[in-house]
Amino acid sequence: MIQKPALGLEGVAATPSVPPAKFDQCIGHGQRIIDAAFGKSSPRRIPAGTRLFGPDGGDLVYRLSGGWACRVVDWLDGRRAIVEIYLPGDMVGLEAAVLGRPVDETVAVTALTVQAIDAQMLAELMAQPPAAAAILWLRAGQQRRVDRLAAALARRDAHERLALMLVDLYDRLCERGLVTGPSYPLPLTQQQIGDHLGLTLVHVNRVLRSLREKEIVSVDRHVVTIRDLDRLRQLAASARTARGFLTERSPGPREPRPNRARLDALMLS
């Protein structure tokens, strides 16, 4: 567990505001510091299905170089909720290292390639303002996704929840340079999608079929192919007019078929 420094009120009050551009530069610098720290760790391969963390917590922080993982909550009646999906580039285990308290179970969805640092190294990184800012930025992004999922489960229908998940995964992969076309790998089963979105297996199957028939998006053999990105984004963003997006297809050429070999390599890298 990281030892937290004591801060007086006078110290907080004296902290100057940071212009957004300067903060962005600070985050970029911090990310390079974090990259260097993880770069000292030899990559490790973790088989699919392996539990990275359990209720007893953990002292390591992982960064995924390849593969997908998820954070889950198992209920006493056997039901499971997937509360967070981790992609290549994500850091896993920050809560356990920083708070020193039990965390939810984290499981490898696919085979993983990871690098790791221990809690002491994380403490040393947090002592450097640029690295601390970068870690804060990463953690804020993770929390935003969890909050958005909670809001979707509370107020969005099945089509909107699924569209939100597919758009979020697509944008995250694009931002990291892992996807450049309209297709990307989705190693989750339909049951796991339901566990993430609060839907039954039958409901997930029905919604996927509906979106495919409306030529918005298709999921086939663990590959997502986006047919109409504008309508998919609108469905994810606006509940008020969502049904209209399921009746018309925007004009434009069909997207190219996915390169199966490239997508398989990305999923298993």
Features:
single chain, 269 residues, alpha+beta, Jelly Rolls, Arc Repressor Mutant, subunit A, 2 domains, 4-stranded antiparallel β-sheet, 11 helices, 19% strand, globular
Verbal overview:
The chain is an alpha+beta fold and 269 residues long. It has 11 helices and 11 strands. It has helices spanning 9-13, 20-39, 94-99, 119-126, 129-155, 158-175, 190-197, 201-213, 229-237, 242-245, 260-268; strands at 44-46, 51-53, 60-66, 69-74, 80-86, 91-92, 105-108, 112-118, 183-185, 217-220, 223-226. Strands 1-8-3-6 form a 4-stranded antiparallel sheet. A 4-stranded antiparallel sheet has the order 2-7-4-5. α2 packs across α5, α6 (158-175) crosses α9 (229-237) and α7 (190-197) crosses α8 (201-213). It is globular and about 50 Å long. Mean pLDDT is 81; it is low at 1-16 and 239-265.
Low-confidence stretches: 1-16, 239-265
- By CATH, the superfamily of the largest domain comes out as Jelly Rolls
Query: How many individual helices?
Result: 11
Any idea what the CATH architecture of the largest domain is? Sandwich
**What structural category do the secondary elements indicate?**
alpha+beta
CATH names the topology of the largest domain as: Jelly Rolls
Short description:
By secondary structure, this protein is of the alpha+beta class. Helices cover 47% and strands 19% of the residues. The strands form three sheets. It has a four-stranded antiparallel sheet with strand order 1-8-3-6.
